[in-house]
Design goal:
The protein is an alpha/beta fold. It contains 20 helices and 12 strands. Helix content is 46%, strand content 11%. It has a 7-stranded mixed beta sheet, sandwiched between helices. A 3-stranded antiparallel beta sheet has the order 9-12-11. A two-stranded parallel sheet has the order 1-10. It is globular and about 90 Å long.
Amino acid sequence: MSIDYSKYRNLSPFELKDQLISLASSKANRVMLNAGRGNPNFLATLPRAAFFLLGQFALAEARLSLSYLSPGLGGTVRVEGIEGRFDRFIMDNHGKEEADLLSHALSYVRDQMGLPADNFLLEMVEGVLGCYYPTPPRMLTLSEKIVGQYVLREMVGGEVPLDSTDFFATEGGTAAMAYVFNSFKQNDLIHKGDEVAIGMPVFSPYIEIPQLEEYGLEVVPVQADPTLDWQYPESELEKLRDPAVKIFFCVNPSNPPSVKMNDASLEKIAAIVKDRPDLMILTDDVYGTFADGFRSLYAVCPRNTILVYSFSKYFGATGWRLGVIGMHKDNRIDGQLAQLPASAKTALEKRYSSLTTDANSLKFIDRLVADSRAVALNHTAGLSTPQQVQMVLFSLYALMDQEGRYKATLKSVIRRREAALYRELGVKPSEDANAVDYYTLIDLEDTSRALHGDEFAKWMLERASSGEILFRIADETGIVLLPGAGFGATRPAARASLANLNEFQYAAIGRSLRKMVEEYHDQFVKSKG
């Protein structure tokens, strides 16, 4: 009996995913291959090993106080002599890679960054023990400097000074987005009916957040063009000149095309910002660390841009929930707060009055911190300190990798997977210097045309409108792909993550998709008599 797949066509991609998984896993003796989610199956092990070894040193430090009262009791860590005790601990663990990483990390922080070694060790030890509230709530003092150096090196190179940016540690990039939109609303920077421009295609929740009832924003799509290697045409970027557009939001490199914005687009947006200094920009650059020579929008218009970065994909740390929000210390959003009407300033003075005697001078990034805890709980805000320590170790691991071996390995793994998929599909992958390849969009029309010509491609496009193809793939092959349309793509396409399966499995996906195309082609030939 045939299945009416069209009834699922209005589901969002991640609701649709559950239906597809159910179909794909419904048959016994068949392995489901879920390429629909971007959670990587690789992870950085050495900085994790360093975290666990640091925990052993931290416990030893805590046991220096109060342990006489009970074998299971420790006390406040003493900073006096901590560097010497750490050196002895490293010697006791000589020969372990993680001990070498911790030793080199201390040397880098002290000798390269010029930060006090004893204060760094105290912050790390207390942090990994989790024995104090995060202080300052926005981010631990030395942790902010170290993570900030890593993020700015990867996102902007040398285009923005290291001491120019404030950082707020958050529970991943998604929490950062939620906090930013909430504080925009709370601080009278957006109102229902305002327009938000979104670079499309994009991670689908970022389309949905502005349209929630509490925000009520009108989405203006800024559509990347697949015929231009997924860059934004100038005509689309010109939409940002409209004063009705309050914010431009993008994921860069994009999700799902996985292409970084080229220099021409960056300079075009920077030129628009010069003419429109009131335009706010929010850029999620989580995939930037997979790109060669990446430049964030924060590099070209830092005073208008809120930079969001997550450690989730590059370090295989989605479960750690590690992200940061970066804002220039001299940013235009603080300038907009200063220009709010008197009535709005009065209301905000009242909102933040428990934090400072001059609430109107409170920076937007500090308002983000307070709003994340409903203001009244600002003193208990902030990312947990063990999370911040792991973030620091990830950052130092990357900063000290002068030869870029970790990055080169990840890029090689992903690109081999892409090659295996398209080789078995029988189609050449696109060659683009700006491509990151964390995801791939398998374009229905291009694939059909490459395999069997224009007439078949047209026939397949007609079949795509029924919503049938991805469900047939899941039902008949056990493979889960997500529809490109759910991410704002204008052409029928399937999104596959290249990060969460092994190479032979991507080859199997390619073979299965090719087999299904051939079955469709047989139907096409029969329909033509």
